[in-house]
Amino acid sequence: MASDRAQSDDYRGPLRRLLLGVLVICLIGLFLVWRIDSPRVERFRAQVVDRVVPPMDWAMAPVTGAVNILRDFQSYQRMYHKNQELRRELQQMKAWKEAALQLEQENARLLDLNNVQLDPRLTYVTGVVMADSGSPFRQSVLLNVGGRDGIMEGWAAMDGLGLVGRISGLGRNTARVILLTDTSSRVPVTIQPSGQRALVIGDNSPAPLLDFIENAEQVRPGDRVLSSGDGGVFPAGLAVGRVVADRGGRMRVRIAADYERLEFLRVLRSYDHERIEEPGSLIAPDSATPGPQAAAEAGNG
Amino acid sequence: MAERGALHLWLMQALFAGLAGALVFARLLPLDTAPPGWAGPNLFLALAFAWAVRRPEYVPPLLVAGLALLMDLLFQRPPGLWAALTVIGCEALRRRAPALRDRTFLADWAAVAGTLVAMTLGYRLVLGLLLVDQPSLGLSLMQLLSTLIAYPLVAALSHFIFGVRKRAPGDFSPARSLP
């Protein structure tokens, strides 16, 4: 048999090797194209995901559901303690609810007095999480809403509690949300009550890093972190989480959203606001010079 | 007999593709969206290597390349690079398969470990040279180690359940005897 193998390799070998070489070169070529022109290949990736994942959804949804039911079943064992805990929390919540109602009324009165217009276009589309990134190195989830539903790249995604991430990678039926914990995630935030600006930088750990703080001494663990709207990516004022200090003394954010179980996400519609880019022309418009020039050009043309 | 051999070959290739699809399916389930502190084994790689050492004809390069590229795209890796390395790794093991046929499982494991380490190093080197964001070294090493630990299990499963065994000396090879 060995001689048989050797004979067949005589004429098969070079051809095989050539085909293999072409295959490897094609793959490496794709990688280089991705490195040079990443958006185009990422669009291709989004289209592939859009084709591949939705047909699997009919099987994925029941399996995910079954596993979650099993997990819930395990938590029944601790039911008594949970119940006690929930009762205590409910007591606290009632007090908070009173306070919130009073504040809401006060806020409504003040808004009315000042005649404030809230942005009426800040509405949302709700999507269901279909799949996660499938890799321990990347943190993202795939939603079952996409370009078809008017989703656009860069919009913010929240669960009921706080900011979850940002749309990056859009197919017709699916949209990928890069979570705040992903290593490529950077979100500008404000820290309340001190009003310091900072960046929330994902580093593949459950609590992302808080960096580029203007004045770190004014930031205390427990402060609230809100999105600041700098850079025009996110609307301002979305809850991100609270500041915690890790063992090394660095500031991190404990995320408000429930990352253990992301099921339904709201994608906030945020449209570009008008930008004011020329400060001078607003105050002193020099309409005398461009007018005649434009007329002359139009005449020449 | 020859027809049965060809059919068997096709079936085993389809089984390989099916197993890879099941692995993708399991990985994509959105069960745990919090970042894990550990990295599980790359079972597809273990499976491809185990089969490439035992029955290279069940894992043709085109099939491996297609599946690996699909995984690159689905799992948000830089597309193409890891797939190319997987194809090269499988081919290297395929070359060594006749020599490994008579050796013990330990030799087999060592060959796979060497290939895997070389692939991981090459991957990180190329990503570093092209200034691409890399996953952390700790997680990469953890994945490498867990893949190596998972390899004997995958090999045993292939051996006992899917019947992917090394060719014995007197074994009749139907696929090769086609004119």
Describe this structure in words.
The complex is a heterodimer of chains A (301) and B (179). Chain A has 301 residues and is an alpha+beta fold. Chain A is built from five helices and twelve strands. In chain A, the strands form two sheets. Chain A has a six-stranded antiparallel barrel. Chain A has a six-stranded antiparallel sheet with strand order 8-7-6-9-10-11, with no helix packed on it. In chain A, strand 6 and strand 7 form a beta hairpin. In chain A, helix 1 crosses helix 2. The radius of gyration of chain A is 27 Å and the shape is globular. The N terminus and C terminus of chain A are likely disordered. With 179 residues, chain B is an all-alpha fold. In chain B, 68% of the residues lie in helices and 0% in strands. Chain B has six helices and no strands. Chains A and B meet through helix 1, helix 2, strand 1 and strand 2 of A and helix 1, helix 3 and helix 4 of B.
